[in-house]
Fold:
Amino acid sequence: MACAAVIVPGLLRSSVGTICAQAASLRLTSGALRHLTLTSIMKSKRKTDHLERTANVIRREVVSAAKVCGAAAESPSVKRLHLLVADKDFSFKAGQWVDFFIPGVSVVGGFSICSSPRLLKQERMIELAVKYANHPPAVWIHNQCTLDSEVAVRVGGEFFFDPQPADASRNLVLIAGGVGINPLLSILRHAADLHRDRANKGSGYEVGTIKLFYSAKNTSELLFKQNILDLVNEFPEKIACSLHVTKQTTQISAELQPYITEGRITEKEIRDHISKETLFYICGPPPMTDFFSKQLENSHVPKEHICFEKWW
Structure:
C-alpha cells in the first residue's frame, strides 16, 4: 500500500524507544489498541488516511518493535528497508501490510511487506519498499531513517496468499503496477518457497504455474528486477514474467530485453490466462485495479478468484 497519513495520540508520539525497548517485543492491550485506532481516525482530517481507509480491515492486535538493519535505493524514487522484528509472536501472510509507527512522527504509514514469510521465520526480518511521497512516513524513511532506527509495526490486510498443504493446486496470475509490486513479490517469493519445500520433501502444497505481469514507467522504476528474474531462471517450468514499460526513453539492457514489452498490460494478455484453476491477484493504482477486476468479472471469472488491493 502507498504511504498514508493519520494523526497518532501521544502514546506513539514520544520516542518509540519507550514503547519498543531495544527492538525486542511490544505488547499493547486490546483496549489500548482499539483506543489508539479509534482516536487516530477521529482526529484525522485527511481523506486518504491509511488507518481510516483500513478501519474495517482485519489486523492483528500485537504491535511489535522493529529495528532498521538495512536500507538501500531500489530505484530513483523507492527506498528498500530491512527491519529486524524480534517478537516471536509477530507473523504475517504473503501479501499483507503493516501499520508503520515512527518515533517523533505524529502520523502512521501503511506499507506492504515485499519479503516472504520464510525470511521472517528464518531471520526475524521483513522487507519494505517505500516510494517517496509528500507524506510524513515516506519523508522520514527517505530523509531521516538510519541503521538502527527504531519503529513499531502491526500486521493487517485481507489481500494474501496462504494455501494449506491439502488445498487444491492453483495457478496464479499476478498483475502489478508501480509499487503495487510489493505485496505481489511477497506472494511470488512465498510460492517459490512452497515449491522448494515440495521438491525437497515430496509433500506439501503443490504450486501451479505463476505468471507475473508488471508495469512501470520505465526500466529504472521496475522494482526488484533481478529478484524476479532470478526466480524465473530458477523455476522456468513454474514462473514466467512479462515486464511492461510505458514511457521508456533509454535503451533497454540485453538482459531485460526478452522480458520487456513497451506499452501497457492488455486485457487480451490477461484473458489468455483465464482458467477455472487460476487465481488473480491485482495491485496498483485504483484505475488499473478497477479495470482488470472488472474485465475479469466480465469474462466470468468467479469473484472469489479475483483478489485486488489499491494503493494511493
Remarks:
- The mean pLDDT is 87.
- The longest helix spans residues 181-201.
- The radius of gyration is 19 Å.
- The first strand starts at residue 64 and ends at 75.
